[in-house]
């Protein structure tokens, strides 16, 4: 049971146990707030073979190792971690009621949504193995540095790949576009190769290749830009009016617009999907909601 709460009752329920949710739990524990982390266990960070831009890890750290450290640290400060998927979130009195698929419920004075997003991946066999070895990469800000000067393919709809190719051109002169829909004119990228559209990506255990018109073009790495699905459904259930593009609007301090006590942090709300952004938003949310909850003076020890 979380500290200072009854069974199923907590000060704060954090939905999602990736870097954002776990960092919020660390801060909340150190603010002496009872906290439960309800996590389905599919953090994007688990895909990271080795992160080299995560502050404080000069030799790099894998996503799994980082998550294990964060879980240990959150538990150290009293957070209760539960593996489950929250399926319903409603306002209830002055707080919130959460429910999972097994009919378990939690009452919380405040809720932090840290549910992240799901990448749309190419329909390719062994896609997880390709990500694990870096043949397929999903985030140039995260790891384009590691493939500086290598042969890179940029895959997806024409409009998306031309926008990202410019950024990647800063890392390599050996760049090719692999369009899913049509090939246009990349005017500002005259030296970038454009391969025929409509092919398929294949992975041979080491490299990804674009197979099109009977030819196989291999790359050191391929970045797909096929979009993503954010998990904003719980926010909508709780009464948040999503933006026209389906995003959760938040105020400074990460509180959602229009629903006091409900916060959103990390990839589910960020425009820059990075661990450092997620943990920064977690700190802001924890301090903001701590100031909103009733003040609890410490009893003499
Ligand atoms: C291949 C790859 C490499 C990357 N490399 C880097 C890097 O080097 N540096 C960097 O800064 N970033 C990197 N990123 C991005 C980074 O992983 C994300 O920015 C980060 O994980 C976001 O944290 P988050 O907590 O917001 O979301 P997530 O880590 O995705 O966690 C969300 C959690 O919420 C859970 N959840 C969702 N819905 C529910 C629900 N209804 N009930 C309960 N739980 C739920 C999910 O199962 C998941 O565990 C990389 C991403 C990928 C895919």
UniProtKB/TrEMBL annotation:
Domain of life where this protein originates: Bacteria
GO MF annotations, alphabetized: oxidoreductase activity
Pfam families: Pyr_redox_2
Keyword Lyase: no
Keyword set includes Disulfide bond: no
This protein's UniProt keywords: Flavoprotein, Oxidoreductase
Domain FAD/NAD(P)-binding: 11-146, 214-282
PANTHER family noted in UniProt: THIOREDOXIN REDUCTASE 1-RELATED-RELATED (PTHR48105)
Protein name from the UniProt record: Pyridine nucleotide-disulfide oxidoreductase
Provenance organism: Pseudoxanthomonas taiwanensis
